[in-house]
Please model this.
Amino acid sequence: MALQVYSTLTRKKEPFHKQPGETVTMYVCGPTVYKPSHIGHMVGPVIFDTVKRYLTYLGYKVKWIVNITDVDDKLINRAKELNTTVPALAEKMTADYFECLKALNIAVESPAGIDHFPRATQHIGGMIDVINDLIKKDIAYEVDDGVYFDVSKDDDYGKLTNRDPEQMEAGARLEPNPKKRNPGDFALWKSKPGEPEEVQFASPFKCGRGRPGWHIECTCMAIKELGETLDIHGGGLDLQFPHHENELAQSESWTGKAFARVWMHNGLLQLRDKDGKPTKMAGSEGNVLNVATATQHVSGEVLRFFVLKSHYRTPIDLGIWDWKNPSTPIPNGLVEAAESVQSFYRFFERYERVRGESFYTLPARMSERWAPAADLAKGWPYADLAKAMPDLWKRFHEYMEDDFNTGGAVGVLYELVSLLNKFADKSGLETGERNMENVLSFGRGVAALREMCSVLGLFLEPPAKKEIGGGNELVSGLMQLLLDLRGNLRGIAKEAAKDNPLKKPLFDQTDLIRKRLGELGVTLEDRATGTTWRVG
Ligand SMILES: [Zn+2]
Model:
């Protein structure tokens, strides 16, 4: 099976064909940087980062651009509220956005992730050129407060979202203006004399100084950075109309060429209140979960895992959240994702005990490919493992080839871990009777797991100590102190002669420490090599 991608434009899955040339070009609409990023802002970046990873894995070179809208009504209003300037606010919030991306394993300004983030204010000249051309072609027209795009001049306007004219009026309500030729016309340039100097740019238009409309920013930056036709244009479902419809109309009217070969739209987060009723995140409700807040409770890895365990075109369910209750600081969907991630960490610890090396040092890609099952079976002492591995491997790829079904692919990760755990149990890999051939087979299975995880951008680096300890350096230090003291007690108890009246009370004390820690949610595991601890 070859890669199939669902395109919003054709409303079906199509075989993925890039344009001639060596690089796949991908443009995804980025944030308006006026507030700190909330977790909804991370859904698109995680999805498209995984799209890039999979395409790269298939051998493509991918150039991925995400724009930053650093001039906009919301920014102007927010800067005023905060008594700061628009550029200062934009810079601060862009830095916050980058930190959030990095926390979710998305490389910033890097060929390994998002290659570049053009800022709208750095492309004003290019936007003016596009608008001028559209005016010359009589597709755009000037009025005293701006320049508008004439939707009646674009024969196939509305083709992306397939809306009837009545629904398109919704766009008109966003930009009411009696001087518009058609209610659905939208602004390419706006002149608002009362606005701060820093958001007013010189223009050759009759209306004079002003700023670009939101849609023209993307048209200009996408084409400037990636060329007239993009291989993939992505964004959230909420951007389909009017933003993407208008981007498409402007771009194709300007270049006369298809703007994007594939339009991909990711589903949005869904939340339920404490009674299970669907609700929206809203500042007025106090239930907007910023990434910075969420990562005080769960790691960025957990957030990424949470996004990837659904199919990207479906709504992503955060589950129930009683946000007014301080004992439930995050929605239960994230709590569940954190538990799942812990089960992977426990497996990686097991691998380290068996092989004496860290999971994270394994190569992101196996050096040898999978042989047919029959050949494999010869080299694999444990028949079930040998039989199951090629099938798991095949299904992982089938899911990814089927419109990047990461939910299915994550399901394969679970199955693989479960299979490897059973194999390790049955072959006594953590006991003295283990045989080296089994250890090697186990290692090969884990190498496959590492490769699959890398494709999804998961478990790339060891978790920070606080993620496995649930606390910080002080907590880790105190836990180690407690374990050392408990170890000393055990040592003394073991050494004590059988009839020593202190022997039992000493052992009781070590059991009491385990019990009390258990009540706090900390589990101790005594092994020949020492005692380890984990939360949960
Ligand atoms: Zn856009």
Summary: Confidence is low (pLDDT under 50) at residues 466-470. Residues 29, 218, 243, 247 surround zinc ion (CB under 6 Å).
